[in-house]
Amino acid sequence: MTLRNDTNTALFSGALSAALLLGALAFQYLGGLAPCEMCIWQRWPHGASILLGLGGGLLVASGVLPQNLSRMLAVLAIIALAISGAIGVFHAGVEWKLWPGPTACTGIGYVPGAEGPFQVVRCDEAQWRLLGISLAGYNAIISLAAAAFALSFLSRAKPERARETVMRTNEH
Length: 172
Known about the structure:
By secondary structure, the protein is mostly helical. The protein is built from 5 helices and 4 strands. The strands form 2 sheets. A two-stranded antiparallel ribbon has the order 1-2. A hairpin with a 2-residue loop joins strand 3 (about 130) and strand 4 (about 135).
């Protein structure tokens, strides 16, 4: 069975989100870097992209879902990937002090009934950088670049119905 380009695009988007999310979890659980609130925000769209792109793409590829859903799944997975990248841009801007971040993760927190204020994981201080770029920055770069690549790949692929119509027209 040959997979359609839109199915491959959905699978690519979901797989890339899975790799990025696994990387974030590795930094958290193996590297000891606790995520801030905005780090968690970036993970939700990756989860959606995994579910829609990888999960949906595999269901289409296995024949459980009809082929005509693959383009919609690919577009939704790309949108989720781009949303995570956009949140990453915002988060990196907060880390670089280009704009203010949410007050919930840029200072001292208070929980009623707790023994007093406690230090939250700050969104405006990068815990780790490589070549001057934080994890939020890398998420932004990789997610937005992959979303643009996937969108360009998807836009070059004609919808399957149009391809079938052209082939039938050429046969007559």
